[in-house]
Specification:
With 134 residues, this protein is mainly α. The protein has four helices and no strands. The protein starts with 13 loop residues before the first helix and ends with a helix.
Length: 134
């Protein structure tokens, strides 16, 4: 199932919401490239395209946490770090085995579940803190 951004995913912070939309676009691009059986070189570019945006997005959220002295910064950062580690493992597996429909299905399930849970809990908590601090 394709991941779609909708209002229920909104955390109420425009910058964070926009970045989540872009993240979802890039996840969908990856899943599409993988399930269409595109070549390893081409899929590899989409993996990196997503990977670099993940870092950019986490970095900007973490900068906001720092700037506003967010008390939950450590726990939130831990979730980011764990995800970056998992993404590295996924990338390594892809480099080893290449693309397959099974890996595409797994990646989609994992990425969409992670993002949904992360947005619904910790990002929402951060956004409501930012709203109060503004
Ligand atoms: Fe986050």
């Amino acid at each position: 199932m394709r991941l779609e951004w909708n209002e229920t995913l909104s955390v109420g912070n425009t910058m964070i919401d926009n970045q989540h939309k872009e993240l979802i676009n890039r996840i969908n691009a990856l899943v599409e490239a993988m399930s269409k059986g595109k070549g390893k070189e081409e899929v590899s570019k989409v993996v990196d395209f997503l990977g670099s945006y993940i870092i950019k997005h986490f970095t900007s959220e973490e900068a906001l946490m720092q700037r506003f002295n967010y008390p939950e910064v450590a726990a939130h950062k831990r979730e980011h770090t764990a995800f970056v580690e998992d993404f590295k493992k996924f990338k390594a597996e892809f480099q080893k085995t290449g693309t397959s429909s099974m890996l595409a299905i797994r990646a989609q399930k994992w990425l969409s579940t992670w993002l949904f849970n992360h947005i619904s809990k910790v990002d929402r908590m951060l956004a409501s803190f930012l709203k109060k601090s503004a």
